[in-house]
Amino acid sequence: MATARTAVAFGLAAVCEIAGCYTAWMWLRLGKSPLWLVPGIVALALFALALTQVQAAFAGRAFAAYGGVYIAASLVWAKAVEGRDLDRADLLGALLCLGGAALILFGRGESPA
Prior knowledge:
- It is built from four helices and no strands.
- With 113 residues, it is mostly helical.
- The termini are close together.
């Protein structure tokens, strides 16, 4: 159950962080209205709250493991939202990062909480 809760928290955190950061990208790089920053701020606040739900022994471990999830989720965003093609290096890199995230959280043989 803790593993499923961690996966959901990481997934929600990733969507919220990427969406929040993308609003700034839209404003500064794509010339969209600065009003896009309002939902971006909300999304980033939700990101922080979601990350606190991760079952890890301490914050630094949760943040480190989340880094791998963030990398993979960013590539999914690039494909799904931006319509970019991913190559073999993108996919292998994401798998490597997810493996590292799993090792950080679960590689000690102890429960993550």
